[in-house]
Structure formats: C-alpha cells, structure tokens
Amino acid sequence: MDFSLSKMKLNKSITTLIIFTIFLTILSIFSFKLVGMPIIICLIFSLILFIYEKNKEVNYPSWLTLLLGALLGSIFFISIFGWKILNPTYVDWLFTNVDSAQTYIGWHFFQHESWHFPPGQIDNLGYPIKTTIMFTNALPLFGMFFKIFKDLLPHDFQYIGIWILTCYILQGSIGALLIKKITPKISLQLISSIFFIVSPVMLFRGYFHQTLMGQWVLLFAILLIFERKTFPFWRWLFVIAASIYIIPYLLFCVGPFMVAHLFMLYRNSESSVSLKKAVGYLAGIMIATLFLLWIVGFFLISDGGVTEAYGLFSMNLNSLINPWYWSSDLLLNRPWSSPGQYEGFAYLGAGLILLSLIGIYIVIAKKRTFNKIIHWYPFIIVCIGLTILALTNTVTFDDKILLHINIGEWLQHKLGIFRSSGRLFWIVYYVIIFLILYVIIKKNRLSIAFALLIGASFIQYYDLHKKFNEINQIYSQDIVYQTPLQSDFWDYAKEKYNKLLFVPFFGDYWVPFSYYAASNKMAISIGYFSRADNVALGEYAGKIIDDVNNDRLDPDAVYIVSNEFLPHIMHINFKNATLMKVDGFNVLLPNKDDTSKKRFSNVESITRDKPNNLFPSFYIWDRDKNANVINGKQLSNNKVMNNFEISTTTINVTKGQRYTIEVQVSSENSSGIGAYIDINDISSDGTKVYKVGSEVVVNGVAKLSYVVPDNVSKIQVGLILPPQTKGKYIFSNPVIYQN
What we know:
Layout: H1 8-32, H2 37-53, H3 62-81, H4 98-112, E1 121-122, E2 131-132, H5 140-147, H6 160-180, H7 186-197, H8 200-203, H9 216-224, H10 233-246, H11 248-267, H12 275-296, H13 350-365, H14 377-391, E3 394-397, E4 400-404, H15 409-414, H16 426-442, H17 446-476, H18 489-496, E5 499-503, H19 510-519, E6 523-524, H20 534-549, E7 557-561, E8 577-582, E9 585-590, E10 603-605, E11 612-613, E12 618-623, E13 628-630, E14 633-634, E15 639-640, E16 643-652, E17 658-671, E18 676-682, E19 688-693, E20 700-707, E21 714-721, E22 726-738
Parallel strand pairs: 5-6, 5-7
Antiparallel strand pairs: 1-2, 3-4, 7-9, 8-9, 8-10, 11-22, 12-13, 12-22, 13-14, 15-16, 16-21, 17-20, 17-22, 18-19, 18-21
C-alpha cells in the first residue's frame, strides 16, 4: 500500500476522514460499550479499506464480500445475543414467552414422534385433529433436517440459537452482495451492510418469534432481480423453498417478486427467456411449491388456515418513521390506531432517515434522474400491491383512520390468510433501504459517499443502542425454567396414560402441559397454533364435554378440568374415576389401579356442595338463514328484546341471597357475538322485569351473580342468543348455587 501524501487534495481528504472516523470510533467505545463492537470494527476496517482503494480500480471477488459481511453479522450476533443460546441443550430460554415456547414445543413434539405422511405432520399436539411443524412456527427449514438425526440428538435439543446466528451471517453477507451491485468498493460494501444487519424489523423478533428473523431470504430475492439475461431457476426455487420452510409470510413476499422478475426478463429483448420458457419456469416453480407445501403439511388445515383477522395486524402509514420506543431519544414515538399494528413495525432508524432526506435532496435539487426506472415497473407494481395489502382496507396514520373501504364479507374472509398483513411490507422495507444507499453511493463522489455512510451508521447505531443493550441484558440472563408440574403424580401418569384431555379447551398453562406431553410422547388436546382447524377443534371440545357429562371417560386419558368448569361436574357420580387437585390443577382421573391420592405429593381432594340443576343438561342450537333448531326440533320465534330465548326456567329464591348461575358454552363454525344469561325478576302478580345479563361468551363459561332484592321471591333465568348469531352452539351443565 502506498500511503504517501503526494497529492494535497488526497492528503486533506484522507486526513479528514481519518480524524472523523477516529472521533466516531472513540465516541462509540464510550457510548455503546460491549454492544458497540460491531460498529467500532466496521468503522476501523472500512476506513482502512477506503484508504487502500481510494484511487485504485478494484474488482474484489464476491467471496470476499460475502466473508466480510458474514463476519460483521457474526460479530453483531455475539455482541447482542452472546454465546449461551448456541448451546443446543440449553432450552430454558425459549420458555420466557409464549411464541418462543410455541416454536420449541412444536419441534419437541415433532422430534419425538415417528415420521408421518406427509412428513411435516404432528399427531400428538392438538389431538386428535393433528397439526404440522409449519403451523407451530417450529422452523421446518431446520426441523425437517434435524429430525433425520432424532435418534442421535439429546432429549432436549434446540436449534433456534444456531438459527439466529445463521440469520445474521446471511443478513450481513447478502446485504453486502446487494451493495456490490451498486459499487465495487469493498469499503462501501462493508459500511453499508451494517444498515441491513442492525435492521430494527429483524432484531424486533429477537424478543419473540425468532423464526421470523430469517429476513435474509428477502434480501436474496432482491439480489436475484439484478439478473438481466437469464432466469436463475434453481436459485429462485431455493428462495421459494426457504421462505416456505421458514414461515409462509415470506413466500407471499418473494413469490410476487419472482413472477415480476420472470415477466421483466420475458419483456427484455436482450434476455434469453421466451414466452415458452417463462411458462415452463413458472409451472415448474408452482408445482414445486405445491409439493413443498404438501411435505410440510400445509394442506392438513382446511381452507388454508384462513382466519377472520385481516386488518387487525396491519401496517400504519407512520411505520417508517415511528420508532415505537426503539429510538434513543432522537425521534418521538407516534401512536397506532390499534395494538395489533406492531406487526407492521418498519422503523428505518435515524441514520437511514437522515440519508433518505439527503437522497431526496440530491434527486430533486440536483435534478438527478433515473432513466432506466421504467424497466423496473413490474417490481414497482408488486411493491405497491404488497404495501396496499399490508395497510389493508382500513388505512391509518397515527391513531386516525384516513380511509376505510368495504371489500365485502367474502373477500374479507379470503384475505384472512394474511392475518398479520403488516409483515407483507418487509420486502418493500428492504427495497427502500437499498434505494437510499443506492442514491447516496451512486450520486456522490467516493469520499463524500463514504463520509455520509460512516456518519449515518454511527447515528443509526446510537439511535438503536438502548434496544441493543436491552436485548443483550435479556439474553445474558441465566434462565432456568421451572415447570409447575412438580408432583410425583405426573411420573405415575406418564406410565399409565397416553393422553391429556382438557375440559373444556382452555389456553392457560398450555406450555407446561404441552412440554410434559411432548417429553413423554403423550397426546394433548390443546396447543398454540398459527393456524388450526377451529371447526374440528370445536367439535372435539363438545365431544369431550359430552363424554364427561355422561361418564364416558377415555381410560387412557388424564382429564384436566378448568376452574370455571369444575362446578359443572361436581354433581356427576363417576363410576370409576377420581377427582382431585394436583399442583393446583383439577384432575379427573379414570382409575386403572389403586390411585389413592395419599401416594402422591401436592395432591388435595376436591369437595364441594352439590349444585342444583338449572336447565336440562344439554342443548344444541343450530341456526342458518331459514331455521332455528334446538336439539333437532324447530324453535318457535319466541323473542325477548329481539333475542332468541333458547331456554328459561323459574326458580324460587331467598331475598338478600346471592346466587351464581353458570352455563358451559361451546361453539362450532359460529359467527356473531355469542350467548349469554339474563335474569328477570318476577313480582307477586307475575310481571317480569329485566334486571341483569352476563358477559357474552362464544367458547367458555357464561357466568352471572345476582343478589335478590327484598321484594322478589322468584326469578326467571334465560339462556339468550342475539339474532345476529349464526352457526352451532352447544350448552351444557347449567348450574345454580348460593354463595
């Protein structure tokens, strides 16, 4: 290297940059401490490389760009996440939130089951409906691979730590390759890659949903569109496969980009892609996509896992500039119109916002033009389309609704497959970052571009460093997961029983019970799923309730009864089952042998006064457009305040006494607001006066407490459904008791 200062202009330029970089480096050391290591290394090495290649024509091989980007990504991972989570037997940290637990438990079931058909199927989770490794967000990309070696792996094995490291390696290396499309200067490639590596959208998922950190797939898709001569079929197929096997939302981002790329090549006269080839490529990828989706179990869920939640997790128009508590006091937080808009979080960071303003000035004030932009119109259309889908039909800015478009019930339902629609903006987000860096690098002299990038990278890092420290502190903790299932009863149960059935389906404590079931190769009737066959789950929930009500217990199942449902089974005289409380949980246990409660620790007997029956024990209400049917019989149009009165009963009461009424409500394929209980006072002359109603319930226990006034000796209790409610409802175990 020749660092001689023979040219005064070069001398001043380099000297200024050296002083500026040293200043930023020292400032980084004192400001960021340990988490500042990536920016410190990046600044120093970028400066060294810049000095070396300042006046040289360089053409570094791509592997060097990949290596430097990968190293910078690795350094950032270590500085933020540390080493502990790379230990594959350290699983405790994954139980700190429900989403991480969902990922691990899904894999834990998948690991300890035999292979099924299709290969991604899981039989024991959400029994007997079944689920898949895809719908437990368990990262099929790694899960399918590691299951091949399941007999060699430790009993408790996790790959999420390795996954996060892999993501940062690829985020850095592919990000650097993207900048190589702009400039051959490796100093600019290195300093620019830091903006992809410290992406708030990616790091945000470090709190939960770590599978969603695989955003390098989006960068890879953007990289592929620069191929202008031939269609890189196998590389696109890899991107499609990777997106499916990470999380399908990524497929919805990269798929349209692939189609736009194919269309652009077909329209390009210099391309070798003819109409025949284009159709062949598209057909091949579509067939491969369907096959890959089948392997991972996507088609096990009816209606593609469509939900009714389109619009709940949308993007706000302020997303690019709203730090949402990620800024270190440089930008103010802005409100959202709904809590679910965190899924549209797309904060650029103060450094990139500054560069974007500079870029806009360069384009407008200096009249820079982009003559070739017309060639990219397929991607512009795709980006606009994905942005519209992310915003949904309700467009918001801050907490204000700017526009709402009624798209009809059918389309609203079908778009439910994009429940977390805000994520569809992610690939547009990275396109915006690339365009900002393109303008800064391409439309400025090398030294100015370098100075702007190192200055903005420091501002970016400073803006986000408090979150870096916060996440570092979270991952630095020594987490020890303590299951609430401490009784030796559970050791007995895993030897004698092979199922855990919940009465009714309730989500509390699904983590410890699911972990227990997976560890002991037991089936469990609940779970936490990204998509599920809710109709089938509802039907099975009703079956479990019906079996318990009629003492038809599965001899191989342990029944876990919710506190709300417990009063409804206290009056049942089970012929061969024991009702007890184990570690605070209500357990209904079919007797296999001597199950005396005294032999187990942390076990209590359950005693309670027998409640009075209220209504007949079981109702099935099924309503469509033409009929209202209860227990198979036509329901008369007896209405109370325009509501359907499913059943009423009159009871004698004691003045001043508090009564509690409960009814178990289960719904199947239902719509509307649900069912509730109401009470009418009956005066001495028979006049009925409405007094109070319970909360509306779709699935759960409708519960109402009422203190009888002094002048009332009778009340009428009604089971009510509003007129807009449709579908099938099951009402069971109505009881009343005095408090």
